[in-house]
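Quick illustration, no need to memorize.
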Amino acid sequence: MKRLNTSLKFSSVFNFHRQLPNRSFSTLIIPDMNESKLHINNYKTLLDASSKLSSPVKVLLYGKNISKETIKEASSDVSEVFVVENDKLENSTSEYLSHIVTILQQKENFTNIIASSNNFGKNLIPRIGGILNNEPLSEISKVIDSSTNTFQRFIYAGNALCTVKNIQKLNLLTIRLTSFNKKELTYKEAKITQIKEFDLSTVKSTTFVENIVAKSDKPELGSASVVISGGRALKSSENFKLLDDLAECFKGSAIGASRAAVDAGYCGNDLQIGQTGKTVAPDLYIAIGISGAIQHIAGMKDSKCIVAINTDPEAPIFNIATYGLVGDLFKVIPELTQKLKH
């Protein structure tokens, strides 16, 4: 079965009109950080996106007791690393971070401020835009022309592409990570600027309660080369374990799920892929018992090879599948697992 490209392209250009004062040409990366450490795969992708924007590129590190190793990792292919350490930044609360970024912007006048188009970036970038009176652009999938601030972005749950020309003086962007490559770190020497003058005592913020992280010996969904996802057709959490047996046949594989499987309680919501879940683009995506609702497709359509297994030959998932197999998953999966093991 041939894979079909269902994305629509809009040739019209949307202009955003609000103006800001003159600025220097530079880009600031706000990376994903957890416990004062970089999410290295996301950072590599942001580096690739930033290489297509204005130079020089700078990065903001934030947290509590940031290690020399983290600063070294952040120094790759950037001209300057801003380091802000504060006890209140240990858990990356967006209210504190947006306050810091807006003050830094007033001092540095960046051309671009970018973050990942995930829960972190979608929470932070609009807050910065609200303070600076600037409309952010989300889900950027391509930098068409940085000199004219022309970008490509996804709309309508990832089913359409539009070209956007931003005529504001500042580009506030969330980057769709699956649309860019992971740039290898070169560990070049960069200027390290420690900033200590931020006063966060007057900033009103939500209260951090607890961070519950799911423990797994499998790689994260966003970095896995193979993702095996299950849907409602698996019928129970016990049956969902069939995916674990199949995943053992692929090195570096991760388990995912549709929202229907998560809502049914077959697995945790940290495995959900789709518009309201995670976005992945592995080398191989195996969709098992997933019908292919538009919301799920939005989160995995950039996968290089898509294999769909479903009893319904008219299931929408087959429209984007590279290979499709119509059959009962409870017969197909054990047989496939057995053959791959041998």
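The first strand starts at residue 8 and ends at 16.
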